[in-house]
Structures are given as structure tokens and as C-alpha cells.
Amino acid sequence: MTGNTKRVAFCTFGCRLNQYDTETMRTLLENEGEFRTVGFREDADIYVVNTCSVTSRADASARKTIRRLAADHPSAQIVVTGCYAQRASEEIAALPGVSVVLGAADRGRIASEVRISEVGEGRIAVSPISEATKFLEVPITEMMDRSRAFVKVQEGCNEKCSFCIVPQTRGASRSREPQRVMAQARELIAGGYPEIVLTGVHVGDYGVDLPAARRLLPELVEAILKLPGLLRFRLSSIEPSTVTDELIDLMAREPRFARHFHIPFQSGSNDVLARMRRRYTVENFDALIDRIRARVPEFGFGTDVICGFPGETDDDFQATFDCLARWPVTYLHPFTYSIRPGSEAEGFADQVAPDVKKRRVTALKRLARDKAELFRTAHLGQEIDVLMEATRRAGELIVGGLTDTYLRVELPEERTELKGMYRVKITAQTDSALLGELV
Hints:
This protein has helices at residues 16-30, 56-72, 83-87, 89-93, 110-116, 166-170, 178-190, 217-225, 245-253, 270-276, 282-295, 314-326, 354-377, and strands spanning 6-12, 35-37, 46-51, 77-82, 98-102, 123-125, 148-155, 174-175, 195-200, 232-235, 260-262, 300-307, 331-336, 383-393, 396-402, 408-411, 420-429, 434-438. It is α/β, with parallel strands linked by helices. A hairpin with a 5-residue loop joins strand 15 (396-402) and strand 16 (408-411). The longest helix has 24 residues, at 354-377.
């Protein structure tokens, strides 16, 4: 520690939205002038754990990390925030070493909360989620260890999916002012981030709570695509009901709009979708994939699936498997259904046996592996534009980046000076990436 400067390390669980929230807290602390960010594996005075609560496994991972921090760094403050913190603040406060539990509506006060908290105090600073009514505006101009910049445009959700507790942990849908989004995007591009990724809980609902009272996402995307210096634009996960023809047409005609959609599917059974309270049918989703494929034939398509939702029969699961097998899925994330306390589905009968859920997830993981390999194989011998970045994996420097279709490409040599977009010829593949050489 230098002078009175305190070292702060961050650990983020879950989605890209959580990554952005971590950047928000990092920026708020660093702007105070008395906090300095260090790597999570370094010694720090404060450890901020940003939790996820999408599954019971996510909860367990957070608890394990908190306990390990308390054991390894007994004199450090441990700040816990995120969805799990909002949902079960008392449970987290009781864990050893926790100094303060910070709610979703309270992240803007992280600096003041850290100052008044003691090591292991277990203080709860969690306001009712109903108080989170405005978008927390923080001028983030740099990201930790990334060449892509995430820009959060929306928070919260007004949907009532029966398996989900996001409305209880993140509040109602609230959008960021368009001029604020554009200002941050300009600053990030000027600061050396050539790719902008828009993120939100329900990004397709952007604008419904603003004075215009309508979905403004296509207009916002079109404005961002006009910014000078932008090399690539990407959308994070978007609900199927909000993927409009305007967005698809923008992707088809604008080369900087990455040909990649991540659209949660969840189930191939209309009965299951109805119990989940999803606002589409399998036929709707099928038609959407056809519309995208007609305009953007080689798009990257990622999706999420829940296995073992209450009442899911073998026939329901087979219908899900058959849809995914025939669609141009390039990667998928199968989740084992996990009861979320406070969700509507918590009280549903016909819970699926754990061994059945496990078997279904295993089948989808095999399908995911085969689909991903097939998509990678189709690129062998091609020349592709790759946005380069240098990252570390198990301590080893990896030079490479992503294609617009969300494929990872790696180069054999350590060329850390490579920044920006490069043309790469694909020569081989591994289990997780393409290998290539500069053209």
C-alpha cells in the first residue's frame, strides 16, 4: 500500500452485465483517488465479490470464494454485491469475513460503505429493490483486461418468467438516456476500444420507459454504427420477441455489425414454454431463425436451454433436442433447472429427478460440442477478419481474438503488438478455437 491508497481486487460471477457492474464499482472507487485496482490473485485490502444467483451452483461458487478469501486474507475487507447479495443478504452477511453486503440499488455508494465498514462486520446495506428506479450513470471510459468495451444501456426486467428472480434482484426495466450511451461509446472508441458491445438485462426493451415509450434499440444501434473509429459492434443476449426485422436488416447491410445473435431458447416444448411464462412459441422461434438466416446466412447463433424444468417430459426434451439439432446453432449453454427461492416455479409440482436432468444436460453438451466443431470446420482454409487481443490462460500468453460470428481465433506466435483488426487465414482447429496465420 502506498500512502493511504487501498488496494482493491474484484471477482465477478455470471453474465456480461455483472462484468459491467464490476467496472462501474471499480470506476466509482478509483475516482475517489484513495483506491487502486489490483489483480484478484494479488494481496489486497478490499475484495469485491460480485455475485450471480441464476442457479444454486452460482450461489455455491460465490460462498466458496468468500470463505476462501476470508481464510487467505483475514485482515482484508470483503464486500459482496450482485444478485445473490440482493436476494439473500442475511445469509451472505453470516459468512466469515464479510464486511458489508451491498444491494443492487446501493452500488453507487460503494466508496462510502467501504469507509464505514469494518473487517468481518457483516453489515447489510441492501435497500428494497423497488428503490432501484433510475439507471446508475457512471462515466466508464476503460475496461479491465479487454479490447472490447461493454456499454450497459438498460437494467432490470418487467417480464415474469416463472423460473427467474431477476425482477426481484435487479428491479423493473429502466433505460439509459440515448445521449449518455452515445457519449460513452465515443469516449471508449477514442480511448482505443474498437469494438462496442451493448448489454442489458432485457436489451431489446431499451426505450420502453423513456419519454418515447417505445423500443428504441434499432435507432440506437444505427447511431452507434455511424461513429468514426468503430471497427465492430455487437449485441449481447437479446430476447426473441425483440429481434426485429430492422435489427436483422441492419446486420445484413452493415459489415461492422457482428453477424452474431445470442437468443435464449429455453425449451422446444410449447407446454413447457407456457409454464415458464415465455412470450413466444416454438413456431415463433423457428420463424425468427428462418428470417435471420434468409438475410444473414452464416450468422453465429448462440442460445440458452433449461433442462429439467418442472413437468418436462422425455417428449418435451426430445422436441428441444430436435429443434437445436436442425437449427444452425454455433454454441449453446444448457442449464440444469435449479429452484430459485421466490420464483413462481418454486412451488410447481412434477419436479424432474436429478439424474434425469443430468442425463439431458449431458446430451445437450454433446450436441453443443458437435455443433461447435461443425461450425469451426466450415471456416478451415478461409480468410477471416479477427479483432486482436492478448490474453492469458493458465499463465500463458495467448494472442488472438474473435471473429464477428463469435469464433475464437489464436495465432501461434507471441505478437503482443497486434491491436485492431487483422486478416487471418484459418489453418486448423482445437477443441475450443480456430488456429490461423496472418495474411
